[in-house]
Amino acid sequence: MTQPPVVLTIAGSDSGGGSGLQADLRTFAAQSVHGVCALTVVSSQNTKEFRSALPVPALDVRSQIEAILDDFEVKAVKTGLLYSQENIELISEMADADLFPSLIIDPVIVNRHGELLYESQTIELMRRRLIPKSLVLTPNHLEAMHILG
């Protein structure tokens, strides 16, 4: 029996289940892909509002990713909400080290309520360091406007 391909999502959680790791893993399963994940931020939100976010330190994000890469043959990596400059730098450095085949970046610069999640210098860091490493970039129209300046 052939094993399904493994895809790593590096993203935040959504307590409402409509986005983030929860949505990525459901999408992977629907496509017969084995999803693995590294958590970047724990958010408290629902369909009506975003309440709070608890960031996961970059050292812990790295540990999660390394544990996955040590055990699974990851075919692709998809990012979602990275939430911090440190996490953006971490993912950029790991991509520079050729640890990520087929890097797919969903920049998640605004939340579903249209609220900006990053300051301008963080968006610039993403534009300069992370986006050029992507095979595929999937911004929505508001995110594309921020990326393009």
Polypeptide structure, described:
The protein has about 150 residues and is α/β, with parallel strands linked by helices. The chain has one domain (about 5-149): UDP-N-acetylmuramoyl-L-alanine:D-glutamate ligase, CATH 3.40.1190.20. Helix 3 runs parallel beside helix 4 (about 120-130). Strand 4, helix 3 and strand 5 (about 105) form a beta-alpha-beta unit. It contains five helices and six strands.
Give the key terms.
single chain, 149 residues, alpha/beta, UDP-N-acetylmuramoyl-L-alanine:D-glutamate ligase, 6-stranded mixed beta sheet, 5 helices, 38% helix, globular
Topology:
Blueprint lengths: L5 E9 L5 H11 L3 E12 L4 E6 L2 H14 L2 E6 L5 H12 L6 E3 L14 H11 L5 E2 L3 H8 L1
Helix pairs in contact: 3-4
Give a nutshell description of this structure.
With 149 residues, the protein is of the alpha/beta class. The protein has helices at 20-30, 58-71, 85-96, 120-130, 141-148, and strands spanning 6-14, 34-45, 50-55, 74-79, 103-105, 136-137.
Largest sheet: 6 strands, mixed
Number of helices: 5
Distance N terminus to C terminus?
48 Å
CATH class term:
Alpha Beta
* E-strand count: 6
As residue ranges, the low-confidence spans are none
Rg, nearest Å: 15 Å
- Tell me the number of structural domains: 1
Return the average pLDDT rounded to an integer. 94
